[in-house]
Amino acid sequence: MQSIYDLNYDQMQEFAQSCGWKSFRGHQIFQWLYRQRAASFDEMSNLSKETRELLKENFIIDPLKLVRKQVAGDGTTKFLFQTEDGALLESVLMHFDYGKSICVSSQVGCNMGCAFCASGLTKKKRNLTSGEMVAQFMNVQRELDKTGERLSHIVVMGTGEPFDNYDNVMNFLETLNHDRGMGIGARHITISTCGIVPKIREFADAHTQYNLAISLHAPNNELRDQ
What we know:
Strand order of the largest sheet: 1-2-3-4-7-8-9
CATH superfamily of the largest domain: Aldolase class I
Number of domains: 2
Number of strands: 9
Strand content: 15-25%
Largest sheet: 7 strands, mixed
Number of helices: 7
CATH architecture of the largest domain: Alpha-Beta Barrel
Helix content: 25-40%
CATH class of the largest domain: Alpha Beta
Order of helices and strands: HHHEEEEEEHEHEHEH
Structural class: alpha/beta
Distance between the termini: 42 Å
Oligomer: single chain
């Protein structure tokens, strides 16, 4: 079943309208997910029982299961998650002077084959959905909620090549950047690519103001392809 995290704000509004609900209903659901961090539809107490039941019929909330959490001496925390189809993926919480950052994976495995990167040791099995990327963020944020802290930065630098999963990555970031979602500032978001030129151009044309990092281990294609 689809995760409701797959829906960005506009898509949530469209779903609400398709159900014949009043225009503010989609906004309420979005607020419950990201401001109140609702982990179940039953927590959405200002929605009618009928509305909550319809949501349950169409969506799940969290498509990930936490398998293991590993904390290093400097506080860096690795989260190993399992998807509904049994795939494993990793997210990392990092602590900096300027705030707390999450490193998000965008694919299960990777086909880019960069010699310096461990991601390529496992060939790409599939793209992650935008909801599975949102869920990485939300699971880590709920951990920080226990101590009154918040994630302030996102780097899409985990397993996978983000620009090989462009649409899902951009949808994921739109949700977390939205001021009615998590409100993560565009300048606090970085996407790392190994250099997929057509998508770099598409990204530039989108004028999102997200940061772009290009990971190059050699200055020309001949050396990079060896």
